[in-house]
Amino acid sequence: MYWLEQSQVEILMNKLAESYELFGPRRDEVSGEVIFDRLGNPRQLDLSAPIPYNPPKYILFPHYEEILKYRYDRKTKKVALERINHLKPKALVGLRACDLNGLMCLDRFFLGQEFVDEVYLEHRKKLFLISNTCVRPFPQCFCVCTDSGPAAREGFDLDLTRVGERYLVEVGSKKGQKMVEELGLKEAGAEAAGLKKKVVDESVSSFDALALENKAWISRATNRLTTGFIKPEVWEYIGQQCFECGACSFVCPTCSCFNVEDVNRLDGTTDRVRTWDSCSFEGYTKMAGDHNPRKPVEDRRNKRFFCKLSYSQSKKYLRPGCVGCGRCARVCPGDIGLPNVVTYIRREITGE
Amino acid sequence: MSYYRGVCNFCGTGCGHLLQVEEGRVRGVYPLPGHPLSQGRLCVRGWHIHELLQTEERITSAFIRENGQLRQVSLNEALDFVAKKLQRLSGEEIAFLASPRASNEDNYLFGKFARAVMKSNNLSLASDAGQEESARVLLEGCGWPAATGSLSRLKQADFILVAGGDLTKQNPIVASEIHRARRAGAFVATISPRKTQMARLSRLHLRPAPGSMSLVVEALARIIYEQKKYNLEYLTERTENHQAYLSHLESLNLEEILALTGVALEALTELAGKLSAAKLAYVFYPTGVQSLDRRTMAALFNLMLMTGKLGQGEGGIIPVTGISNLLGSYDMGLSPTFLPGYLEASDENNCRKLETLWETKISRTPGRSVSASLAENKSLRALMVVDHDEEIIRQVNRIKELELVVYFGAYQNAFARLANVIIPRPSYAEADGTYTNFERRVQLNRQKVKPLAEVQPLWKILSSLARALGHDWQYESAEQVMAEISRVVPQYAALTYEKLESSLGLKWPVDEIHPEGTDYLLPEQKKAKFRFVLEEKTLSQPTIIREPEADFPFKLTVGRSNYFWHQNSVMKRTFIPKREYNALLLLYPKGFVEISAEDASRLKLREKQPVRVISPSAEITLAARISPDVLPGQLYIPYFVEEMIPEFLLRQVAELEKSEEYFLPVRLEKVG
């Protein structure tokens, strides 16, 4: 491991800016809230800011993205395809462990199955990832229940852990190693691993006192969801509170559902557009001939939590589909963010 | 790719959002955390506004119609053409149809153009549905035309009553706030004939027969009166006419009301008890897309006044506007009867004051709304329209007869087919402007994307036209227009872009006494006493209820579903909300009528079976949809298939769409 002094953060950012567009947590000047955004100025980076309101998902899997362009010639009946390839390399600095884990879930969906999603791959292979250990949890966090924090274990190029006034830097890739060497960072010596472990252990033990918004009894909920022993009334109670806005899917670092539309442009070409979608929408599961296997809202809700927590889904991600960031609880107009649903399931089990 | 702070432009909630802009295009949207009302939430519409903002179905240049064909022209040519036509028109010969989605700056100058340049008082919004009535009831009762309370302490409320509509569909984030308050312990009750999601999320749901909601509210007051759970001392000290109101309550026959409304006495008594015991109480009702009638609004106001819940803090009456800038549009005086700032146009002093500020004469001829002008004014020759939806369908033939129809719009629209001149407008993300939500919160929305060269903000276009007509309008920015608004509209007296820039909106009145805005109706602001809103009608026995006629035993009401929102001209340019709307449309391509399981089994109707709905004047065939949401004896048609309007609802629609207090007596016949 290496040491990065506070004063070297800017040098690191400037170095990255030579090859990458910079993204990271910044504060909105009026609301004071934290957004994971493009950094026009590297100084906007705020590594001590709380977990951003938005996950970095949109950088690899945009809200709205042209994935293909084509022109159909009516006379010759031929289609000319055009690949859209304008992606710039990007550096994501200050990723929280939950969000890095979310990104790895997306990798397994888009890259780890029978078909590789080439558009996602284009985004993915041009990234430089720097994670940032949460030395203390934020009120909404429950990553300790989902095994996705407070420190990242894998997937980063560089990982930062704040120790006192400086950062311990762990290298996770060749790209990362090269960067460390180019910057000439000081080696941290043998005691580094122990220092980092101490910081992470302290963070874990402060969840009880600081992460008060959400408690999630994930292992029992996983058991129940997998075996299907949850009464329909619980799902109905949850369904009644669903406003069908799709927000839980849109803010989830691991949700990967999308919709595809062809949009005719004025110049005669057609863009094939991919947009975010959500299993909470009725139209999402509707099939030809009016059939809808998940018509009632509670069936659609049920599906989402099955996707996040059941054992069979977790096998695909090699981890639970929930990374414990607590965003779904904050954006939900009802009161059915994942931690609350786990609470409803727990109440059913314990009869509280 | 960066996120920029802004205000959602769909409904009157005015949620804060972040628009993601990349290379001059809006590519995504995210809720703005920390917004005082929406607090990082958006509804299904708000989550897809970027799809609308990217549509190719824009109006990108000006057009003039010649021999029936539209010819693309430069903006200057179009403006010269319009100015020459306008020079030859008198105020009586022209009417102005404004948009409740346009900014305060655009709307203010549109109203000023009508009154000061064209000397016309024929000025109104397209969709009003109860907003003007609501403002009048509140002005009469407490001298304050909008939300008397503030949602800042909603979570501490112990009593919340939601009357009519379905806020979970019309203003989902307001409904979400109410739901959160309920989870925090508030008693939430809904009064609506249909079982809506709002009703499902309430502790108590009263389901009065259509047309009887005002009676239910008066019955509540009567019960409180009988139980003497009101403070006579407070009423004597704070109100002008409590005796008239109390004697009206005395005259009510509770038993008769219960029979007419079909509501149980126990439920009413429980609700009355909760209200009179409440320390912090709120009443919500919708306006704009669907609303209540004047009588029900007055009854709700009187109930809150009688129980001492007004002018006592954050609680109060909250009319919830269904369209983004509906309240701001009235603030700017887009009405034949209100000048800017809710000053009565019929008052000579108000007219003189405005003439001094505007340094020009205005007409004293009373104006008409645009629909009244089209229907009654034979001398009408011209119409100027901003971003209109497609509900003008009722008067298509009259509009076709007009010599000049100028359409200012951002999106391609059926109205453009009726226009002689089309002038492009920027989308709301392409211009600076302020929008006023139902809370009275004025929010600044900055330009995030540059429009095409030929697309100019409405205030700029109107300034050019005014100059061509001999008026010295020299506005150089939306900010300069706001500077003038602050001199003309008393509620906006101390508002500046500078203040708005560094805040997430300020609630009017923003004036010398309250430079940072006003959270709720303050007793000191209201020097005069409150008044109960009484009318001749209110003093006598109820007359609004019509007994079902023997030939037409069902009471039919119409409403709007989640995704079919505001005539759908906006939703159909998105992907996901459009798909969700189409899901319903594909199931019921010709629309449906909801019927209770009891009535369906009595009439031997199966799901999706075609059925003729027959009113005294028209009929339509729709699919039956058996629903647990309607009571026996009632029918409900969601208003989502455009053809239903001319085919069936045409004659009744004006009243039906305004208020769920109106219903149509119909009968059903099986087809085949």
Task: Give a written overview of the molecule.
The complex is a heterodimer of chains A (352) and B (672). Chain A has helices at residues 8-19, 57-60, 97-110, 118-125, 143-146, 174-183, 192-205, 207-210, 218-227, 232-240, 247-251, 282-285, 297-309, 311-317, 327-331, 338-350, and strands at 2-5, 21-27, 34-38, 64-73, 78-82, 90-95, 127-132, 158-163, 166-171, 186-187, 258-264, 270-276. Chain A is α+β, with helices and mostly antiparallel strands. Chain A has one domain (2-350). In chain A, the strands form 2 sheets. In chain A, strands 3-2-6-7-8-9-1-10 form an 8-stranded mixed sheet, with helices on both faces. A 4-stranded antiparallel sheet of chain A has the order 5-4-12-11, with no helix packed on it. The longest helix of chain A has 14 residues, at 97-110. The relative contact order of chain A is 0.15. The model of chain A has no long low-confidence stretch (mean pLDDT 92). In chain B, the strands form 6 sheets. A 7-stranded mixed sheet of chain B has the order 5-4-17-16-15-6-7, covered by helices on one side. Residues 538-545 of chain B have low confidence and may be disordered. Chain B has 4 domains: 2-53, N-terminal domain of TfIIb (Single Sheet), CATH 2.20.25; 62-127 and 326-504, 3-Layer(aba) Sandwich (Rossmann fold); 131-321, Dimethylsulfoxide Reductase, domain 2; 554-670, Beta Barrel (Barwin-like endoglucanases), CATH 2.40.40.20. The longest helix of chain B has 14 residues, at 104-117. With 672 residues, chain B is α/β, with parallel strands linked by helices. Chain B has 25 helices and 26 strands. Classes of the chains: A alpha+beta (352), B alpha/beta (672). At the A-B interface, strand 3 and strand 11 of A face strand 1, strand 2, strand 3, helix 6 and helix 22 of B.
